Amino acid sequence: MSASALIEVMNLRTSFAVGGERVEAVRGVSFSIAPGEVLGLIGESGSGKTVTGLSLLRLLPSHASVAADALRFRGQELAELSDQQFRGLQGIQLAMIFQDPVGSFNPAKTVAWHLKQAIARRARADDENSDWRDEAGRILRDVGIRVPERVLASYPHQLSGGMLQRALIAMIIALRPAFIIADEPTTNLDNLVERQIIDLLREQQKKLGASVLFVTHDLAVAGEICDRIAVMYAGEIVEIGPTRDVLQRPRHPYAQGLLQTSASLERRDEYLYELQGEPGGRGAAEGCGFVARCPVAMAMCRSKRPRLVDVGPGHTSRCLLHEQ
Amino acid sequence: MNSDQGTDMTADATLRVRDLTLDFAPAQRLGTSRTLRALDSVSLNIEAGEIVGLVGESGSGKTTLGKTVLGALKPTGGQILYQGHDLATLPARRWGQLRRDLQMVFQDPLSSFNPRFTIESSLSLPLRLHGICEKRRIPDEVAALLRRVGLGPEHARRYPHELSGGQLQRVAVARAISVKPRIIVADEPVSKLDVSVRAQVLNLLKRMNRETGVSLVFITHDLGVARFLCDRIAVMYFGRIVEIGATEQVFNDPRHPYTLSLLRARSATSGAVATDADEIRLEIADRAHACNYAPRCGRRIPACTQQRPPLVTQDHTHAAACLVPIATALAEQRQPINPEPRTA
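^ inputs. structure came back:
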């Protein structure tokens, strides 16, 4: 955890009260993101990747409880901020792109209204005045919309999913946040549109110099856009490292399994490599969360919880095999 | 297969879709009664034992085509010829045995099971209705089916919500194969499943095809998956098949510009794909006589807005609907994926 990190998360634990019980969705997650860096958070349903993002932005419902040893933004401990102070950061410092852009818009207002709000919020923060119409048009052209007038006058339901995701990215650009959480921003889109939005996100992220936590289940997409990748399973980061290292030399059996499947798909094997079992089901308090599906599980994996161990420069993996 | 005419009424296992057209009439708005052409003169053969992929984006008509083939939607025109019947016009009461031959696996397994039936009841119903086995043998048959899709007999007593998505999709496959069908239409059967579970269900579908010889119509937006599973691929765009051919032909030698865009979208070639904004607002006098893809197409010539390109056979198994199809040499130059010599 270097002092220069924009975001520092140490031992994040998020749990939900479900029917009198506490269910741990995130079990001690730590990472840091440098300014301008894109960290991919990869996992399947129930791995805790989305909850991790929502925990950082205080977007969880009241039955969730979030605890962490540290949750810092530019060195400032976020837990110390009141809700009102935190809201001052939301949008202009910390922003989020959701999977479904429709939910991020007010259905009764035009795109112009939304962009005006975003631009005004930024202007208030910077104490400057600008003609929002000029700026809105400029930003929309930046996100690949050639006739901004038509889109500005549109209501959210009048736009396709891809156009709406562009409009949302335009809002984010207007807000110029330092940190963006993008939660499966291309999952609901068609192939061609997905490609366009990935290219757009990559280009605009570079331009803004923002740090991004990119949440996805798609290894290929993560490989294109992320500087580093963290693989989550059952509420824990099981492997984290530079994108190239994680994708080419994965060390954790879960990451290895996922990559073996995509490799067998690329090779067009007669049958694909299969990881047995299914995700879901919290790991026991002791032991490894992946033990039930692990092809190389040992007896002690059931009783001893593995630590993250260095397996390369900036590359750690949580498996007892590394500890031997 | 070479001759389209004259063999239509033979009682072989080939299903022949001919000029299938389907119009949806959306709720009439302020006096305008526009219909939406979801399928536009689609022709396609499904041979015994083959896996045909229907590939396209949302709204391309791939699901509509699958449902129409099974009789779940009534086409506006065209024929679906199978075993001497035209399924397009065959009244529901006369389907009889044909229902058993044609089965479906849906995208969302949870909504395709009755939540109040145990897995055993859901699996035994088709066995009973189609008289697949003696009544007293049904529990054994259910257990055997579960075993074939990799589940234990204990799953029989469970309810759908007690199973995970992947397990339930296995049950859906078991239900489809239980009546020994000739053709299974699988509509995005893995897109709702977790990444690590998809391989299991894809392998299962392939194994069932190899073991039983059942034909599969596999509907997907995922080209990588289609390449793994399918013998042939039909690329759909706005209700039409724009390209069809053997899987490796379509991947290595795409002729339609839309197919090429889809293939390029998979690889990380930045800027390779036209953006929404690049879509030009074309003045098209008569949309019925223009190429649907013209507004997004980089190879457009004036004729593209004046006539609808027919699906022209490039060689005997590969066809594309384009007035200016991509030349072979050009495609090779761009996509040197497969070093094997082409046979054509």
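The interface with chain B takes residues 44-45, 144-147, 160, 162-163, 166, 190-196, 199, 202, 217-219, 224, 254, 257-258, 261, 264-266, 268, 270-275, 278-280, 293 of chain A (CB under 8 Å). The CA atoms of residues 141 and 147 of chain A lie 8 Å apart.
thumbs up if we can close this ticket
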